[in-house]
Design a protein that fits this description.
The complex is a heterodimer of chains A (about 110) and B (about 110). Chain A is an all-beta fold and about 110 residues long. Chain A has no helices and eleven strands. In chain A, strands 2, 4, 5, 9, 10 and 11 form a six-stranded mixed sheet that branches. A five-stranded antiparallel sheet of chain A has the order 1-3-8-7-6, with no helix packed on it. Helix content of chain B is about 0%, strand content about 55%. Classes of the chains: A mainly beta (about 110), B mainly beta (about 110). The interface between A and B is medium-sized, with 22 and 28 residues.
Chain lengths: ~110, ~110
């Protein structure tokens, strides 16, 4: 089946630093989504991307839909302690009945 | 705001028991999903439903069944729980007009002993 390779697996940063993470695939996706999951909670949708090359922001978060449609990037600027959590990418390819393929997540730790 | 609720946050069951996990959404969404989440394996789709009484198998349906009698409610059933079904179970929903933006519930952490 389709797979999404998400990297890095984990990051340890200082408060105030910027963060970048990405997802890549050998398959083309029509939609990319980014979620954040706090410990013991369900994932929360951060950003949805629908067009190749699209760049979308949500506060300090910016995500891009790669021009090849095989990758996506998430950037967090000026990190704060509440950014801690697991960030997941998810992709949807055509004809999959609303099914999403998820990456395995990036665990972000922010040191105050 | 979309609200997806799950019947229990934590559940402990014995091997062989029949287990019901319930999910309710309040946004009139057509599509509902059940996932399990395990360390190192990410989210894996068990079943989904795109309408009342309609269901489709996901990637790992073995050992599970589902029921959708009402639009707002989607139940996951473990017919005979086994220890390898110990996991975090997540329900999600989405409406057909924005079919890929799935909204998740808080999850049920199930332990089978």
């Amino acid at each position: 089946g389709q797979q999404l390779n998400q990297s890095p697996q984990s990051m340890f940063i200082q408060e105030g630093e910027d963060v970048s993470m990405n997802c890549t695939s050998s398959s083309i996706f029509n939609t990319w989504l980014w979620y954040k999951q706090d410990p013991g909670e369900g994932p929360v949708l951060l950003i949805a991307l629908y067009k190749a090359g699209e760049l979308t922001s949500n506060g300090r978060l910016t995500a891009q839909f790669g021009i090849t449609r095989k990758d996506s990037f998430l950037n967090i600027s000026a990190s704060i302690p509440s950014d801690v959590g697991i960030y997941f990418c998810a992709g949807q390819s055509g004809g999959s009945n609303y099914k999403l393929t998820f990456g395995k997540g990036t665990l972000l730790t922010v040191n105050p | 705001d979309v609200k997806v609720t799950q019947s229990s946050r934590y559940l402990v069951k014995r091997t062989g028991e029949k287990v019901f996990l319930e999910c309710v959404q309040d946004m009139d969404h057509e599509n509902m999903f059940w996932y399990r989440q395990d360390p190192g394996l990410g989210l894996r789709l068990i079943y989904f439903s795109y309408d009342v009484k309609m269901k489709e198998k996901g990637d790992i349906p073995e050992g599970y069944s589902v029921s959708r009698e009402k639009k707002e409610r989607f139940s996951l059933i473990l017919e005979s729980a086994s220890t390898n079904q110990t996991s975090m179970y997540l329900c999600a929903s989405t409406w057909t007009g924005s079919a890929y933006e799935q909204y998740f519930g808080p999850g049920t952490r199930l332990t089978v002993t």
